[in-house]
């Protein structure tokens, strides 16, 4: 519970305030006779959990997909908290956070002061109310009354009155009506129009559009896809479990409904929140006809369209399978298949391995070829996650704590190197609802030197004829092509050399990979995170 929460004062009631010798009238001021008896606010469990999660995200910069699962687990232990409450709480948290910028613009129209002058907990309750009113099928009167009750419980009566007044103003129109008012016409300012209509910061719209190209329809499809719930995808690690066996196990074990299962190893968990338009049905998710589908592109992928709890699968608990977006699987597969020029193919490196999803797939693929994997990670605790994820790998491997910009290995030590660099994560906005509002354009400048240094050292680590895969979970051109161009150019100037391979050739059957030679995956085109991949072969 938020430390700012307050219980409203209890009403003593007229009879308890009477004292002997006092007339009833003298102790009962006119005002109190007319007001309703003061009652305790009803605590709606789903909205209370949602509010607590929003406070944690707001106050402590927490990640929603990390704070929500323990809150749900705790609430489940309390009387009366059911699966439908968990589904509703999840939908409310994810929807409210994703649409935060748009809801803020609506709320700003309905309050008589700048938003920064509204107390953050009050703003959280207002956003929660705005999402119910504008982004779900919850009837307006129910959304207002339940949110005002929440406000009474967590903010007190005075502020609940303010919440009530603001929500009534918001409820006077639907989302389309509000967007007509707050968003400029497309022709007047396309980026601002799209930013408000699709709930992305303007600079993110601009960056995504630069990377995607195309016209209005293309960028709108991408922005819409960012606002959808991603499927949970598993990877069947080759040599450890077949895709068919994983599908069978997942089909048997994973039930429909809300998911609070693990995300990629050590990553924020992947929630099974309802899509934005499904909130009215939250908690009544029906059984999927076929819960475990094959992947679209990766031969090792199994898609759980309905979420479920992958952590409950024995194969996942035993590391034979894991939760992994198909885009990440494709990056590992493309590196594993890229043609080398001469030499051996026995020494593979993952230079930025934490938390270990790609390393585990690479390790399994390497084992199948008689190669070994070194998985390096700078942060000790993340190296621990890598070690856990690789446990049981069928072939030789080592996990090392190492700084990829000052490597412990000699130049030319490896045949294949993956460098999946730290980045803004603008390619994974579907999974991290608050990330788009937290990131700033200045963050790019912070990552730029590290990304270049890591790629430079990866190219030094690979032998002549060997291949480096440079990957990011961001399509931002400053983190993708600009890095590769700069580093390849500088290598040439230093007397080295690297040629770009056509990465599309390593992913036969995957459409819409762009003009090459590097590839950019997209949520709306491939159903994956927006992963970028360049393949570089050392020539000198
Ligand atoms: C994008 S993540 C890698 C994700 C990973 N490939 C996977 O699939 O699970 C980048 C990782 O690089 C690590 N890192 C950051 N700076 C590093 C450095 N100088 N050397 C090695 N690793 C670094 C981060 O701690 C983070 O774990």
Automatic annotation (TrEMBL):
The active site is at residue 473. Gene3D superfamilies: NusB-like (1.10.940.10), Vaccinia Virus protein VP39 (3.40.50.150). It comes from the Bacteria. Keywords: Methyltransferase, RNA-binding, S-adenosyl-L-methionine, Transferase. One of its GO terms (biological process) is regulation of DNA-templated transcription. Residues 266-276 have a biased composition (Basic and acidic residues). Residues 1-48, 236-303 are annotated as: Disordered. Residues 33-42 have a biased composition (Basic residues). InterPro entries: MeTrfase_RsmB-F_NOP2_cat (IPR049560), MeTrfase_RsmB-F_NOP2_dom (IPR001678), NusB-like_sf (IPR035926), NusB_RsmB_TIM44 (IPR006027), RCMT (IPR023267), RsmB/NOL1/NOP2-like_CS (IPR018314), SAM-dependent_MTases_sf (IPR029063). Pfam families: Methyltr_RsmB-F, NusB. S-adenosyl-L-methionine binds at residues 352-358, 377, 403, 420. Residues 14-32, 277-296 have a biased composition (Low complexity). The keyword Transmembrane does not apply. Residues 222-539 form the SAM-dependent MTase RsmB/NOP-type domain. Belongs to the class I-like SAM-binding methyltransferase superfamily. RsmB/NOP family. May act as RNA methyltransferase. This is rRNA cytosine-C5-methyltransferase.
């Amino acid at each position: 519970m938020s430390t700012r929460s307050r219980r409203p004062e209890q009403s003593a009631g007229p009879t308890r305030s009477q004292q002997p010798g006092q007339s009833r009238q003298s102790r009962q001021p006119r005002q109190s006779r007319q007001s309703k008896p003061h009652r305790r606010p009803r605590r709606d469990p789903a909205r209370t959990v949602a509010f607590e999660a929003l406070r944690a995200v707001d106050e402590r910069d927490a990640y929603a997909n990390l704070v929500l699962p323990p809150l749900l687990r705790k609430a489940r232990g309390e009387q009366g908290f059911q699966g439908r409450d968990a589904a509703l709480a999840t939908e409310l948290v994810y929807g409210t956070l994703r649409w935060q910028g748009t809801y803020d613009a609506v709320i700003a129209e309905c309050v008589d002061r700048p938003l920064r002058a509204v107390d953050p907990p009050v703003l959280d309750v207002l956003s929660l109310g705005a999402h119910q009113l504008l982004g779900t099928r919850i009837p307006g009167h129910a959304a207002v009354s339940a949110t005002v009750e929440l406000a009474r419980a967590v903010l007190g009566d005075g502020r609940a009155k303010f919440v009530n007044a603001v929500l009534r103003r918001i409820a006077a129109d639907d989302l389309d009506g509000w967007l007509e008012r707050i968003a400029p016409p497309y022709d007047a300012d396309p980026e601002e129009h799209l930013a408000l209509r699709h709930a992305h910061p303007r600079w993110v719209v601009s960056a995504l559009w630069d990377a995607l190209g195309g016209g209005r329809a293309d960028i709108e499809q991408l922005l819409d896809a960012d606002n959808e719930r991603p499927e949970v995808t598993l990877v069947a690690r080759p040599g450890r479990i077949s895709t068919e066996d994983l599908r069978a196990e997942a089909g048997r074990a994973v039930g429909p409904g809300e998911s609070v299962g693990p995300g990629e190893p050590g990553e924020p968990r992947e929630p099974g929140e309802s899509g934005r338009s499904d909130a009215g049905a939250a908690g009544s998710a029906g059984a999927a006809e076929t819960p475990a589908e094959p992947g679209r592109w990766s031969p090792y992928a199994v898609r759980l369209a309905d979420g479920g709890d992958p952590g409950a699968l024995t194969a996942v608990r035993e590391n034979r399978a894991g939760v992994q977006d198909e885009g990440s699987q494709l990056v590992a597969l493309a590196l594993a298949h890229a043609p080398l020029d001469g030499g051996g193919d026995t020494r593979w490196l993952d230079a930025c391995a934490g938390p270990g999803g790609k390393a585990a797939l690479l390790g399994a693929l390497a084992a199948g070829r008689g190669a070994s994997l070194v998985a390096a990670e700078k942060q000790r605790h993340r190296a621990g996650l890598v070690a856990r994820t690789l446990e049981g790998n069928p072939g030789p491997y080592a996990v090392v704590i190492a700084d990829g910009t000052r490597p412990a290995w000699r130049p030319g030590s490896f045949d294949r190197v993956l460098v999946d660099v730290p980045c803004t994560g603008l390619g994974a906005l579907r999974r991290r609802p608050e990330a788009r509002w937290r990131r700033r354009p200045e963050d790019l400048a912070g990552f730029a030197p590290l990304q270049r240094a890591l790629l430079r050292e990866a190219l030094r680590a690979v032998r002549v004829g060997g291949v480096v895969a440079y990957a990011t979970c961001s399509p931002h051109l400053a983190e993708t092509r600009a890095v590769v161009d700069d580093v390849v150019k500088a290598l040439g100037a230093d007397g080295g050399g690297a040629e770009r391979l056509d990465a599309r050739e390593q992913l036969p059957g995957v459409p819409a990979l762009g003009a090459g030679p590097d590839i950019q995956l997209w949520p709306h085109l491939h159903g994956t995170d927006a992963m970028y991949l360049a393949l570089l072969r050392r020539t000198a």
